[in-house]
Every structure is written in structure tokens, then in C-alpha cells.
Automatic annotation (TrEMBL):
This is Uncharacterized protein. Residues 1-25 are annotated as: Disordered. It comes from the Eukaryota. It comes from Kwoniella pini CBS 10737. Residues 1-12 have a biased composition (Polar residues).
Length: 93
């Protein structure tokens, strides 16, 4: 249960996305897709992918919206690598 709340005891959750941020989600999602497509296997460990997006100064709520947009438009899929239990993201082809 601690994993579900880690960070919230020390840091407040990211505020919801603003209207301006919501309007930029499609463009940011295209940038994120390009980042993922540059990888050799067109996949990354999800934590590494999120770290790359954070390097672009994106807030957690915006990253969540980007991931949701990419998944709901069937651009990417998320999956668990058996044995390591790491979550990965890859481009749907």
C-alpha cells in the first residue's frame, strides 16, 4: 500500500492541468511519440520515458494526460516485462 501513496505524504499531488496545458496535449503527445520512435526498439522502460518527459519541464498531471492521449489513440501500449515486473511503453505498429 505504501507504493500507492509514496510521495504524497511529503509532496502534494500535481494540480490538474490548466486549459492551456490541455490544449497543448496533442502537440506534446506528438513530441513524446517522436522521442519514443527514436529508440532502437521503439520502446522504453516507462520510468525512463517519464524521466525524459520531466526533462522537458512537464508536470506530472501533464505527463499523465500525454500518456492517456497516446494510449487512447492507440499510438502506444503499456505492458509489464515478466520477471522484472517493470512497466514498459512501446509504439503500436
Amino acid at each position: 500500500m505504501a507504493a500507492l501513496t509514496s510521495g504524497y505524504s511529503n509532496n502534494a499531488p500535481s494540480p490538474p492541468t490548466t486549459t492551456e496545458e490541455k490544449e497543448s496535449i496533442p502537440s506534446l503527445a506528438q513530441d513524446a511519440y517522436s522521442l519514443l520512435s527514436e529508440q532502437d526498439a521503439k520502446m522504453m522502460e516507462l520510468g525512463d520515458f517519464i524521466a525524459e518527459l520531466r526533462d522537458l519541464d512537464l508536470r506530472t498531471a501533464v505527463i499523465d494526460e500525454i500518456l492517456g492521449y497516446m494510449v487512447s489513440n492507440n499510438w502506444v501500449q503499456l505492458w509489464i516485462w515478466k520477471g522484472t515486473e517493470e512497466t514498459w511503453i512501446n509504439i503500436v505498429e
